[in-house]
Amino acid sequence: MQSLLELNQTELALWLARELGEKRFRAQQIFQWLWQKLVRDIAQMSNVSLRTRELLAQKASIPWPRIVTIQKSQDGTTKFLLELGDGARVETVLIPAEDHAGRIRWTQCLSSQIGCPMACTFCATGQSGFTRNMTAGEILSQVLIGRDYLGDTRPDHPILRNLVFMGMGEPLMNCQELLKALEILNDPHGLAFSPRRITVSTCGIKDGLAKLGAAGLSYLAVSLHAPNQALREKIMPRAARLPLDELLRCLRSYPLKNREHITFEYLLLRDVNDSPSQAHELAKIVHSVHGKLNLIVYNATNGPYQAPSPERVLDFEKALWSHHLTAIVRQSKGQDIDAACGQLKARFEN
Ligand code: SAH
Questions:
Q1: Which residue among 28, 92, 218, 285 is least packed, with the fewest CB closer than 10 Å?
Q2: pLDDT tens figures, 164-214
Q3: How far is the CA of 60 from the CAs of 10, 57, 333, in angstroms?
Q4: Average pLDDT for residues 41-56, to the nearest whole number?
Q5: Which of 92, 118, 333, 344 has most ligand 1 atoms within 8 Å of CB, for mutation?
Q6: CA-CA distance, 65 to 155, in Å (whole number)?
Q7: How open is the CA angle 14-29-113, to the nearest 5 degrees?
Q8: Which atom of ligand 1 approaches the CA of 299 most closely?
């Protein structure tokens, strides 16, 4: 069985020609059924001949994940536990935000791996180990679930606005499938997400950064979390195998679009990386790549860390201000449902 969710439009056209002797334009129609009309059943593709639908159904499938549970927070944040074809389970989260006109727009937090190989010391997913990469189709099937749940089927008025790869896994350790998913996301006959509506978050993988930059299919966020190599080695030892100097060099040559900036994420851990002097170090780093900065208040998990107090966070911000650096402090959402991917906090706004 061929999963139709694993093929980009060109591959689908070739596959249809090879397997069913179909013409190219069929691929565009079928693609729209899959990604815009959200059909899960080949029989529903009503502009495809009955004969073709029957043949297609013998050779191909549309494997949506099974929803195991949905948890909804008081603030609207909605977490899904999904089960994939082989029984592996993964989380995805929908996060609401009001736009300037007061309408609700959603951001979806996507997973890219089952577990994560990076084993960052503060991260629940990292501490739970690594099972396997997700395929491009599995990555994208999360978006199908999200759009279906939101009733988001009008391409001219998308309700699901932004996608962030901040769920389970290190996306750049699964580069091939990630890039394929981004390509299918960008297809105007498919999900039609422009690169400006997608953010890939990474702890910094050298090869992956080069490939992601060359593809130009998303924004980039980098999980920094420490203002120097020594501390980074302590709290995210595997990520720190790419030395900070070298990471910053990669980022300085990272291709950016017009008015685009790299975003740094900095997770504040009490008495570990939250001192004003560390803020000074951090400001220099952020300025050195003309980046933006998001501060994330640690969402306590079972690990050895604690969140800093609000006063401590403010002192940190003040130290940044002295370098003319204004950070966005990410508001935690969905606290009452323990929101988010393997305990990653749903904290993303538009
Ligand atoms: N592996 C990628 C993306 C997944 S994690 C990356 O490292 O960027 C998304 C973000 O959540 C990262 O910045 C990660 O460090 C952060 N995170 C992990 N555990 C967290 C916690 N307990 N509280 C808040 N943020 C956390």
A1: 28
A2: 999 999 999 999 999 999 999 999 999 999 999 999 999 999 999 999 999
A3: 16, 5, 39
A4: 96
A5: 344
A6: 23
A7: 70
A8: 23
Return the half-sphere exposure (C-beta side, CA atoms, 13 A cut-off) of residue 79. Answer: 25
Q: 3-state DSSP call for residue 319?
A: helix
Residues with CB under 6 A from ligand 1: 120, 122-123, 166, 170, 201-203, 223, 265, 267, 296, 298-299, 301, 343-345
The three-class DSSP label of residue 98 is strand
Q: What are the boundaries of each domain within the chain?
A: 2-61, 66-349
Give the DSSP per-residue string, 186-214: H-TTTT---GGGEEEEES--HHHHHHHHH
Residue 91 known to be catalytic: yes
Distance 123 CA to ligand 1 centre (A): 6
The pick from 296, 305, 330, 331 for probing ligand 1's pocket by mutation, whose C-beta has the most ligand atoms within 8 angstroms, reads 296
Strand partners, 107: 95, 162
Residue with tokens 């008495």: 271
343 Cα nearest atom in ligand 1: 22
Q: Active-site residue among 109, 116, 175, 341?
A: 341
Spatial distance between the Cα atoms of 302 and 61, rounded to a whole number of angstroms: 40
Question: Is 11 a catalytic site residue?
Answer: no
The token pair at 219 is 């924004």
Q: Which atom of ligand 1 has the smallest separation from the CA of 201?
A: 8
Q: Does domain 66-349 have CATH number 3.20.20.70?
A: yes
- Amino acid making up residue 283: A
* pLDDT tens digits, one per residue of 101-118: 889 999 999 999 999 999
Residue 131 to residue 300: CA distance in whole angstroms:
24
Q: Which residue's CA is minimally distant from atom 5 of ligand 1? A: 166
Burial (0-12, 13-18, 19+ Cβ within 10 Å), 100: exposed
Strand duo 263-268 + 292-297: pairing: parallel
Architecture label for domain 2-61: Orthogonal Bundle (1.10)
Asked if residue 89 lies in contact with residue 81, where contact means CB atoms within 8 angstroms, the answer is yes
Pairing mode, strands 78-83 and 66-72: antiparallel
